[in-house]
């Protein structure tokens, strides 16, 4: 028996704890926005996450082959852009809606190329969810925030594809640790330009460490542990609960209250995501946390 499994959780509780951890981290991030802004908060999270993962994983950068570099660099860049766009959305719209709209990316990836009639149902449900969130009368939800969330979803789909390619040539922990280094490349210039990183205090650094642990280090570790024994399809169905967890987290931790129509939108997209996974005719990519 491998000694590394001594502290492991069963697969399903590990995924559920990962979801709770990510949404708790998002609540911490939103609390930092008034002081650091989305760019500074993203830079702090990714920078500290990269440092923690480098210490814990100790990737052997010098031993990587060219094919591994070609895979992990774009994977890391996509990870950084995805997180930055998500935080830009989170600064403008409630947490539950930001995560719900972001889920459109992986859902679209799961449905792309399908010609089965049942998948039309999932597309229509997702479209209905987006329609319920959209501010048709020009009031309420921030349009730019919606655009950022959908763009983050598009990056999430790209991230999943690149993550699959990276996982084929590099072990999971190594890929995440090295990818996080490159995730900082497209984000740090915005963080430095904002000037917010100059405002860091010991208290803000402590919050940054908590943000890095809850949003990156802990969920990535739990998800990798779960995927060792959990079928990809089951994992993806469990991850479909994330918009609901985000909405509840926003309500409990940030006092963000959704309208009945917005709760319906969350429900529609969750059902569409889980349904698309359940009825898939081929193995679907695992959906990692944002």
UniProtKB/TrEMBL annotation:
<feature type="transmembrane region" description="Helical">
    <location>
        <begin position="120"/>
        <end position="137"/>
    </location>
</feature>
<dbReference type="InterPro" id="IPR000620">
    <property type="entry name" value="EamA_dom"/>
</dbReference>
<feature type="transmembrane region" description="Helical">
    <location>
        <begin position="39"/>
        <end position="57"/>
    </location>
</feature>
<feature type="transmembrane region" description="Helical">
    <location>
        <begin position="260"/>
        <end position="280"/>
    </location>
</feature>
<keyword id="KW-0812">Transmembrane</keyword>
<keyword id="KW-1133">Transmembrane helix</keyword>
<feature type="transmembrane region" description="Helical">
    <location>
        <begin position="69"/>
        <end position="87"/>
    </location>
</feature>
<dbReference type="Pfam" id="PF00892">
    <property type="entry name" value="EamA"/>
</dbReference>
<feature type="transmembrane region" description="Helical">
    <location>
        <begin position="203"/>
        <end position="222"/>
    </location>
</feature>
<protein>
    <submittedName>
        <fullName>EamA family transporter</fullName>
    </submittedName>
</protein>
<dbReference type="InterPro" id="IPR037185">
    <property type="entry name" value="EmrE-like"/>
</dbReference>
<feature type="transmembrane region" description="Helical">
    <location>
        <begin position="234"/>
        <end position="254"/>
    </location>
</feature>
<keyword id="KW-0472">Membrane</keyword>
<feature type="transmembrane region" description="Helical">
    <location>
        <begin position="93"/>
        <end position="113"/>
    </location>
</feature>
<dbReference type="InterPro" id="IPR050638">
    <property type="entry name" value="AA-Vitamin_Transporters"/>
</dbReference>
<feature type="transmembrane region" description="Helical">
    <location>
        <begin position="175"/>
        <end position="197"/>
    </location>
</feature>
<feature type="transmembrane region" description="Helical">
    <location>
        <begin position="143"/>
        <end position="163"/>
    </location>
</feature>
<feature type="domain" description="EamA">
    <location>
        <begin position="144"/>
        <end position="274"/>
    </location>
</feature>
């Amino acid at each position: 028996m491998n000694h590394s499994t001594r502290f492991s959780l069963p697969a399903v509780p590990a995924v559920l704890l990962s979801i709770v951890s990510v949404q708790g981290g998002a609540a911490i991030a939103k609390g930092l926005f008034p002081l650091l802004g989305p760019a500074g908060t993203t830079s702090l999270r990714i920078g500290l996450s990269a440092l923690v993962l480098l210490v814990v994983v100790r990737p052997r950068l010098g031993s990587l082959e060219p094919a591994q570099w070609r895979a992990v660099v774009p994977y890391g860049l996509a990870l950084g852009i995805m997180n930055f766009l998500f935080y830009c959305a989170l600064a403008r719209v409630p947490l539950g809606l930001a995560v719900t709209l972001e889920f459109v990316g992986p859902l679209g990836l799961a449905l792309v190329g399908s010609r089965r009639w049942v998948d039309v149902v999932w597309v229509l449900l997702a479209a209905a969810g987006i329609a319920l969130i959209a501010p048709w009368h020009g009031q309420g939800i921030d349009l730019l925030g919606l655009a950022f969330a959908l763009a983050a979803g598009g990056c999430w789909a790209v991230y999943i594809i690149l993550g699959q390619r990276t996982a084929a040539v590099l072990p999971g922990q190594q890929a995440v640790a090295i990818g996080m280094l490159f995730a900082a490349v497209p984000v740090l210039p915005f963080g430095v330009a904002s000037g917010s990183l100059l405002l860091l205090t010991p208290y803000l650094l402590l919050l940054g460490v908590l943000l890095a642990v809850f949003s990156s280090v802990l969920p990535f570790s739990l998800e990798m542990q779960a995927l060792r024994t959990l079928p990809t399809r089951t994992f993806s169905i469990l991850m479909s609960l994330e918009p609901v967890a985000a909405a509840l987290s926003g309500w409990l931790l940030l006092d963000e209250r959704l309208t009945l129509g917005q709760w319906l939108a969350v429900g529609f997209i969750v059902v569409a995501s889980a349904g698309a996974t359940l009825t898939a005719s081929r193995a679907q990519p695992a959906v990692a946390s944002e």
